[in-house]
Sequence to fold (432 residues):
Amino acid sequence: MCYAIPGKIEAIAEKTVVVEYFGEKRKAYNELDDLSVGDYVYAQGGFVIQKIPQDEAESILSVWKETFFDLQEVDLKLSRLDLNQESVSKECLRILDNAAEGRKLSREDILVLIKEKNKSALELLFKVANFLRQKHHKNSCCVHGIIEISNYCCADCAYCGISRSNKNVTRYRMSQKEILEAARQAIEEHGFKTLLLQSGEDSGYSIEELAEIVRQIKANWPALIFISFGEVGLDNLELLYTAGARGLLLRFETSNPKLYKQATGGKDLSSRIAHLKKAYALGYLIITGSLIGLPGQSEEDLLNDIFLAKELHAEMYSFGPFISHPQTPFTGNPSASTETMLKVIALARIIDSAHAKILVTTALETINPDARREALLAGANSVMLNATPLKYRPLYNLYPLRAHEKESIEVQIKDTIGLLMSLGRSPTDLSV
Ligand code: SAM
Fold:
């Protein structure tokens, strides 16, 4: 199975190319040397990542053609919207009607939605978000792979199971050879077109080593590489970009500077924000968001989190529930509920309808095994599958009982594709 559909180059203007998919045209940034009009390519996240032979492309397209339009039909049916709901308050209906029509909501309106408790109103909120997702992004759903390369961390976050203060963690650091082999398998054998490398803030790798790993992956296999190594330093972001990294996953964790300090052992939020701003200026695709349910977090904070992610030019929003880890200072605090998580996802979709890719996080699936389906029907359109070697997965113990921890990548792919097909989604990155 492949997570991208080949597109045909229709026009080239310097580094910008127009790619055509079954009649739809998208723009992408090209970094390949030998591209001509008429060539077939894979594009991800707005970047051309690989040229493919015409016969190969045409055979993949002929398989996709019917399925592609059939899936769109199913998605369209599932995202129909009916705003005639008697059990929903007039105020809520007014706000949701404005949202569905694409009119900008005031802060007060969004707060009303975030405080809403009525089940029918919430169902309608999720439907509006799903309607907007379909309207702007059609049925595409990104399926990215993640490799967790090390669980060493010099940070001391009060929520995180792999923080430096947790002495009960068995630490691991994958060697360059292991990382390259895991990347090869993910790209070559399992078809991932975008791969995220993640670790704690681990000074055990020099920045040159990390850059070399990115360089080697780029030199050997066609994929878009995202990194998530924490705060690597502003200059090092540039080094990693030059090596070939094109996406940065860095959550700001909370938009509330006081809460951030409490949650991170005294760190300053401004440093994370500076990384995110610099990364955007360098050309990275930004994946960011926050932890929902941190002790002391208010509903206003949640709203500010969504606005901050937007302000930071999130290409993809990543909001996950805080889950209490027994060996951390935040142990015993309750997790955010699925309902709160779905509200945040739906509101992110409403606030940034046309642009946002919204991730269903593993943490959300951990608190609710059906959450992937529920979130995809509440505005989300992106999933990340765990391609870390099985032997290391239990050691990347951010919180207990992580979803999919014991599932092989083959099983994750099969289940994901099954779910996406049942919802009429195509596992593609078309909405570039
Ligand atoms: N070191 C990198 C960083 O700082 O962004 C990436 C690794 S960090 C462990 C990845 C994410 O895990 C964090 O951004 C945080 O939101 C999430 N996380 C850590 N502990 C968690 C917990 N107890 N519950 C839910 N998510 C958690």
About this structure: The first strand starts at residue 7 and ends at 13. Residues 159-160, 162, 198, 200-201, 228, 230, 250-251, 253, 291, 320, 322-323, 325, 363, 398-399 surround S-adenosylmethionine (CB under 6 Å). The mean pLDDT is 95.
